[in-house]
Amino acid sequence: MEEQDITKIKKEAVDEFRKSKTFSAMEFAKQMQSIVMENMKEKNKVNFYKRYSPEQVSRYLADPSKYEKQLREISRYLTVSSPQYWRLINYFPSMAIINPVLIPLDTVKFRKAKKKSEKIYNEHKMKLQNMNLSHECVKILNTVFREDVFYGYEIETENSYYIKPLNPDYCRISGVYDGCFVYEFDFSYFDKYKDELKSGYYNIDKNFVRQYNLYKKKGSSYKWQELDLSREVCIKAQETFDFCCPPYVSVFNDLYDISEYKDLNKAKVEMDNTKFIGLTMETRGTDSKELDDWILDIDTMKDYYALITACLQGKIGTFMSPMPFKEIEFSNQKSEIDQVSNSIKSFWSSTGVADVLVGENKNAGTLKYSIKTDESLLFNIYRQIERWLTRKMKESSNGMFCVKLPNLTIFNIDDTTDKYLKASEYGYVGSKTMVDACLGFSQNDIDGLGYLENEILNKTENMIPVQSTHTQSSDSTGATEKDEGELSPSGQQTRDDSSNDNR
């Protein structure tokens, strides 16, 4: 074979080698870094954008009144898939203390028929007891902060009570009745779920069967109908909006950032465990006068390369290079971990909830005032619940009673109890009843316990009051501990660090 033909064959082999995309070490490393990162991101993604694309969410947020259903579905999905969002949604319901107080509304009527009024009072305090609102209202609050609106229907018997949540996709607010939202129900729901009319809660109240039959008889003009208004329960977080929108849609993108940085961090950890074996393609060196004069021919090198690659598993990769190469490192883990932490802090900052309450910050200097702001948002919903209960009690008592819902949370209950106790010392009317509510007792509980202790067990004579520090002198010295709001910044730091605990 002539020398010219040999040179041609060698050149073709080199071209084939290059076309096989076996690059130099650095070029290979760059491509591997990109491929591994993208693969790991796709493999580890658990955020909601795997189900809802960023473009979809942006479109929904641009016109929330048009995409009520879609935004509600995203909020539900995040409650399950995101621990931060779940904690946010449950934050307000978990601080709520629902303990309504029955109050005479028409005192003139009450005084004129004292015996009859007492009978009606006893009936209604039992009604409140039977409703178990401390449990039912927490379920309402969970839905309200997740979806903005709770649509419910009261299922009530002589000894049981339950608020049946209705599918919000088949409900719409239709107006206001006695200060409370009322809604219409889409009876085409039972075209799809007809079996629910034959059993379960819908079968207890025959109004659903009657109104569905009316819809089937009259047609689409009776598709939307109001239910029994005395049994409708409709509570909305954002009363000023004429459409329904989850209260925390603005943090959806922050949740995406958290999940995205977690994925990147995991990919980085995976990459730190990735190793590469470099196969040097040796040439004959300066003794050869030819370009790319390999010691081994191209096919032999490729065969050995394929053989070695087939024997490797896991995170060990191979490459060939005609040049010396340095160790390849992709480690950047600390930076990504910091990004995860920063994205979580950014999320809580966007919600307006103090991150110290969820364990993300140990500085509690302004915590008290942050909690008060959060409580005020919750108390706005208390007023809706209060008006609904008042409407219910007014209707059943012929206008004789209304309901007061004290502004109680797990954070303020001690201060509120002290406030009413001090008021009772000065003889303020109603303060004793409010103390009972703060202690977690219903009016029915107090009447029953009072009769049991005073009339049956005679505890007023048999029980000796326990001695307390308030009735004993003390030789101990030191100032009375201040409330959080009275502390200076240095004093707050001392309390946070427990510096004075052993003094």
Number of strands: 10
Number of helical regions: 20
Helix content: 40-55%
Oligomer: single chain
Low-confidence region ranges: 21-25, 38-47, 333-337, 356-360
Strand order of the largest sheet: 3-2-7
Coarse structural class: mainly alpha
Q: How far is the first residue's CA from the last residue's CA?
A: 99 Å
Q: Taking all residues together, what is the mean pLDDT? A: 76
Beta-strand content estimate: 5-15%
Can you lay out the helices and strands and say which pair or pack?
Elements: H1 3-19, H2 25-44, H3 54-62, H4 68-81, H5 83-95, E1 101-104, H6 107-112, H7 114-131, H8 133-147, E2 149-156, E3 161-165, E4 171-177, E5 180-186, H9 189-192, H10 201-204, H11 207-218, E6 224-226, E7 232-236, H12 252-272, E8 275-280, H13 298-311, E9 316-321, H14 333-351, H15 367-397, E10 401-404, H16 413-425, H17 431-438, H18 443-456, H19 459-462, H20 489-497
Parallel strand pairs: 8-9
Antiparallel strand pairs: 1-10, 2-3, 2-7, 4-5, 5-6
Describe this structure in words.
- This protein is mainly alpha-helical and 503 residues long.
- It has 20 helices and 10 strands.
- Strand 2 (149-156) and strand 3 form a beta hairpin.
- The termini are far apart.
Looking at this protein, list some descriptive labels.
503 residues, mainly alpha, three-stranded antiparallel beta sheet
